[in-house]
Amino acid sequence: MSSRTDDGQRLFVGGAWVEPDRGHYAVTDPATEETVGQAPEASPDQVREACAAAREAFGPWSRTPPEERAAVLGRAADLIRGQLEPYAALARAETGATTGTARAMQVGVGAARFRRYARVEPAEWAIPPQINEAGPMGRAGVMGALAVRQPVGVVTCITSYNNPWANPAGKIAPALAMGNTVVVKPAPQDPLSVYRMAEALQAAGVPRGVVNVVSGRAVEVGEAAVDSPDVDMVSFTGSTAVGQRIAEVCGRGMKRQLMELGGKGAAVVFDDADLASAVAGIGTTFSFYSGQICTAPTRVLAQRGVYERLVDQLASYARRLKVGDPRGPDTVVGPVISAAHRDRVESYVELGRKEGAVVVAGGERPSPERGFYVAPTLLADCTNDMRVAREEIFGPVVTVVPFDDEDEGVALANDSDYGLIDYVWSGDVARAFRTARRLRAGGVGVNTVARNMEAPFGGFKRSGVGRDVGSYALHAYSEVQAIVWPG
After folding, report:
1. pTM > 0.85: yes or no
2. Active site residue 250
3. What is the pLDDT of residues 192-203, one digit of tens each?
């Protein structure tokens, strides 16, 4: 059966493409406001059917040799890479990402993540023997032990709208590599790319029920995917508020969780920093996904000796960026995901004005008549108690707060509900690393916004629970079992 009909996309449940009970809804291109395609609206019963299919498939898949599971992931990587252009065009249309971002950071990274977990890694390791004295538990003896990573079971993967390729692939690939089965609930704004991923996995030979994809705008769709008794773990990327509601449900059932939530990344810029590097790094907030990324350095803390120069250079940088059609070869800043989100971002800029911040760049709606565009905006003379400096805006908006010395800079950075990724710029490497260790964040970039894709990723405080990426994702999607025997 085809994955699509004239009416729109079908759901992927139990290895079959099925018609959605609740019809279809239009997916909108945020750059043109035109319809990209028709996404399926699942019913809660269909979601529970997907969870049951994943439960039924779990036993055989978990017993499949790791090498065979890896081979499926490797074939999927090749199939995705072979469809790079059409997949990138769809991702660009669904998300408003620029062509370069859609190719490299969305589809390209998605394929790379499947390729990464096509590499089999040891799932067991020896524990040093223990000598036990004779006692109530028995005779004296030497006890050997082995630690074994076992799959968790059925994993519900609820993915974010900002990257419909890299984010789902970062959940699905390590989960499958460990022998889990998955039910994927993509973001309602851009689910069509995730169905293309399911097509690639089906073509790669993934058995029936191992991967299921169900979408919908209704809250009940996500609730059913979390609350199903067939689900053992929930992996979620999204807002802290939604993450808290999911965690409450998981807590009732003692379900395992992996939560990658909001961020308000602090960028601590010292007087001796390389300003060109700092401006280029912080400037990615304006351009990369139009600021719709939780790792962005949106809260700049500038030491007073460099504050004025940094504000001036960031403002000049923001004004030079071309905002417009993401299909244009020289476009740097595309639209945000929806009209509602554009209104939300704009309301924060207005709030910043009312709070006393100075808008030194942006602040107005760009010229395109169609599309959900927000101008790269810089808010200076902020204080750390302003809402614009404390709450995640998730758009191309940067706030700048001055500080005097290292202790104050660290205190301001840590005075946040969030703790995902912070940044430090300083010409004094010793101070930069000393500061990094004092920051309450899951990751710290020193003189860079680049990431090492084998390093653990996750947040402190309200930015999440758990770590993934690289080998850490294999740990995240597994339980550790101890096997003990007398030597």
Report:
1. yes
2. no
3. 999 999 999 999
